[in-house]
Amino acid sequence: MITSLEIPRHEVQRRLALDNPWWQAGRGIDEEERTWPKRAYYAQFSALARDRSIRRAVVLMGPRRVGKTVMLHQFVQELIDSGTRGIDILYISMDTPLYAGRSIESLYQLFLEAFSHNENVKPWVIFDEIQYLKEWGLHLKSLVDTYPEARFIASGSAAAALKMQSRESGAGRFTDFMLPPLNFAEFLHFRGSDTVLMRPLDNEGVIPWACNDIDALNREFIDYLNFGGFPEAVLNPTIRGNPGRFLRQDVVEKVLLKDLPGLYGIGNTQELSRFFNVLAFNSGNEVGFEALSSHSGISKQKLGEYLEYLEAAYLVKRVHRINDNAQRLQRERTFKIYLTNPSMRAALFGNIGANDDAAGSLAETAIWNQWLHRQDSYSDLHYARWKSGRQDIEVDIVGLDPGSQRPRFAVEVKWSDRILDHPEELKGILILAEKHTLEEPLIVTTRSATSRYVTSDTELNFIPTAVYCYAIAKE
Description:
Elements: H1 9-19, H2 31-35, H3 42-50, E1 57-61, H4 68-81, E2 89-93, H5 104-114, E3 124-128, H6 136-146, E4 151-156, H7 159-169, E5 174-178, H8 184-191, H9 194-197, E6 198-200, E7 209-211, H10 214-227, H11 231-235, H12 237-241, H13 243-264, H14 269-281, E8 286-288, H15 289-296, H16 300-312, E9 316-319, E10 321-322, E11 334-339, H17 343-349, H18 359-372, H19 375-378, E12 381-388, E13 391-400, E14 407-412, H20 427-435, E15 442-446, E16 451-455, E17 458-464, H21 465-474
Parallel strand pairs: 1-4, 1-5, 2-3, 3-4, 10-12, 14-15, 15-17
Antiparallel strand pairs: 6-7, 8-11, 9-11, 12-13, 13-14, 16-17
Helix pairs in contact: 1-5, 6-7, 10-17, 13-14, 13-17, 18-21
């Protein structure tokens, strides 16, 4: 007799019960996860997820290992604590092998049958790592349309795949919520050092925060550059002991070897990985397709495709160049590249110290990462570079007004205090300020110094990089 190869229903139900311990009276989520601090985005996500007024599924997107699953579990506990019955909550991780080949509707039906739920029950249904389900957008949209009494929430790490299917399949049925890596303020909060090191200012200064101990804050900042973008690395001493192995294997390699090839059909993953390594090593630097193609031996067209894939996967961001008149170049030959998380560079090439050559570029990367969390502002940020005679003039960050597209503020990033003795090196930001009426004070970041420099009618405000990062993150 031929044995059936199908996994029995009772085995699937047993696994569902294992993944949903709150089905037993008095139980909740894992004790360790209860003690984890909540992400700064948790309240916003919870309010969105609990809102049943619009029949839409919430799709929680983000890079790998930024705390999506923990956030979902914490949301489950919040539901239980607020009176929701545990048997009205279903959590399924779609990367579980036992669920392979099963539709999410069949799994939902098993849940309904297990507790004899009828249309009067309003279940909460969570699909974690939903990108492992082929054409998940169509299936989830069908559930939203078929079961109006249920509130559906999905999440996944393949941000590129999720965003594409969410737009194509879930128009009018999905609400996207992006969870980025930890910002610097969150990192300090997770470490329990934010209230010790930082204090709010009552007076209206350039930024509303001051530091109590800049040396201690800079030590934390270097740790943030090395492993601080990932909650698990911050909270787990074992991972902190070898963050490179954790981040490289669990974050970078899975995206490059699994997520992106599966989504875009990339055949030469070694070539893609080599290209990403070049970008990661040069985070904070200006690059161009001509030089990249010459260095890598990859065609410019292919490099352009790879760059789009890496941006879609939330691994890198490119920043566009403007000139001193705040105009984009018609033919863009160069751009600046930034990792979306400075910890990825340390994972690939080793930890850095405060005096290492790479510290300055990673400090600049960290500042851009804080702006990434404010997605409404990021598209209006550029860097400026232009010719003045034979000299190249540059300004690291220029924020444009979204309406007029004229410069609103400018920042020059330095990881050194020597700039206070050489303000003549800040020619670019001074020219920009003279040429345009800026709404906000000029800022130059330093390593540890706080000061002001006045020349003619222009005032430069020197602020430590770590303090500036914290201030952006807290806004």
